[in-house]
Specification:
Elements (H helix, E strand, L loop, with lengths): L4 H10 L7 E4 L1 H4 L9 E6 L2 H17 L3 E8 L2 E8 L2 E9 L3 E2 L4 E3 L3 E3 L2 H14 L3 H13 L3 H8 L8 H10 L5 H5 L9 H21 L8 E4 L2 E3 L10 E3 L2 E2 L10 H8 L6
Length: 273
């Protein structure tokens, strides 16, 4: 698991404070089985009034457990702090996020509650298109290989980012691919990566995504497609054999929460063949 010890300890300590509207998201749960370490822990909230409330409560729990909490900023919808335990430190950020998603949040032993893996992946796609950060590019490879192909994700992500087309999102990601060697060397990862190999891989992934979206009928943009209750990248030639799944406020299950365990097993069993 790509977590620093202090991050795992803090997450376990705060897990009981999380609920379906106060959940861990971002790169930390996305990389729980990957090699990249996240520099911070993001705790998102569906309502603005929950941000400060959760931050103050979590800080008190951490201080009572012996951690040092140093506030970096305290704004109405964004609180961040550095958490220290001796020489080890991590950053916690409490923020408001849209409650529009494709699936409900999931209860988790380590995180308390977290976004569904597909919603984590969709957020990462939008982040990679909207900012120039090498960590997002590395995470896209993880997403493509362990959660859902990038083509299916950009196809659904346009529902969360009106004004973009799937092709437009891919184009924005391509513009954010290049980073200097110094940035590669500073990446927190279990073993060094070969930049040329990673860039070649992500370009191939984006080429595959472009080929997929060009074959898809535009009236289906903004939807996920499910096969036996599990999100997949569909075959454009037989869309009528899949279940079309829409996003909504706080998400929805395609059938029942009973499929949660099967989904988690799928996403945590390693890269797709």
């Amino acid at each position: 698991m790509a977590l620093h010890k202090i991050q795992a300890d803090v997450l376990r300590l705060l897990a009981a404070s999380r609920d379906p509207e106060s959940y861990v998201a971002g790169s930390t749960p996305l990389n729980r089985e990957a090699a990249r370490f996240s520099g911070d822990i993001d705790i998102f909230h569906d309502r603005a009034d929950r941000v400060a409330e959760a931050a103050v409560m979590d800080a008190r729990i951490l201080q009572d457990a012996g951690y040092q909490v140093e506030w970096i900023r305290q704004l109405p919808t964004l609180h961040s702090a550095e958490i220290r335990d001796g020489r080890d430190a991590t950053k916690l950020e409490w923020a408001m996020d849209s409650d529009f998603r494709f699936f409900p949040t999931l209860q988790d032993e380590l995180f308390g509650y977290t976004l569904h893996p597909v919603d984590l992946a969709l957020n990462k796609v939008l982040a990679a298109a909207g900012r120039r950060e090498l960590r997002d590019i590395i995470d896209l490879v993880t997403v493509h290989e362990t959660i859902l192909p990038i083509g299916a994700l950009v196809w659904a992500a346009v529902e969360k980012s009106p004004g973009f087309t799937p092709e437009g999102l891919i184009g924005e990601i391509r513009r954010n691919l290049n980073h200097p060697a110094e940035v590669w060397r500073s990446l927190a990862i279990e073993k060094p990566l070969e930049p040329s190999a990673v860039i070649e891989r992500i370009r191939g992934i984006l080429d595959e995504a472009e080929q997929f979206v060009r074959q898809m009928p535009t009236e289906h943009a903004g939807f996920l497609f499910l096969e036996k209750g599990v999100p997949v990248q569909p075959d454009p030639e037989r869309l009528d054999t899949y279940t079309r799944h829409a996003g909504q406020r706080r998400g929805q299950w395609p059938s029942s929460p009973d499929i949660t365990a099967a989904m988690w097993e799928q996403y945590r069993s390693g890269p797709k063949p």
